[in-house]
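Key result, reporting period 2: structure in, sequence out.
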């Protein structure tokens, strides 16, 4: 009986290590969202699964939604400089 409990703990630890280290970030975020719905602390789970807290929930705390507009140094009437490679057919 003790052997079964010890093996179960070792397997649980291995699954936890795998899921915190080798799963893609999207799956880790989904796991954290599920654990938060179950009543666990989001900040602690985010640290454990190595993701930004609140990322993907739409709260804006990670800053990924606040992308600035690209800067243009050209005047408003001019088109930006584009490089064109001219090809000559022989």
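The corresponding designed sequence is given below.
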């Amino acid at each position: 009986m003790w052997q079964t409990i010890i093996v179960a703990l070792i397997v649980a630890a291995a699954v936890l290590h795998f899921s915190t280290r080798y799963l893609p970030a999207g799956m880790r975020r989904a796991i954290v969202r599920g654990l938060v719905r179950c009543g666990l602390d989001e900040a602690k789970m985010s640290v454990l699964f190595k993701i930004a807290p609140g990322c993907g929930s739409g709260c804006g705390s990670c800053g990924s939604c606040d992308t600035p507009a690209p800067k243009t140094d050209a005047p408003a009437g001019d088109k930006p400089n584009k490089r064109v490679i001219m090809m000559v057919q022989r």
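The chain has three helices and no strands. The CA atoms of residues 5 and 58 lie 40 Å apart. This case is discussed further under Risks and Mitigation.
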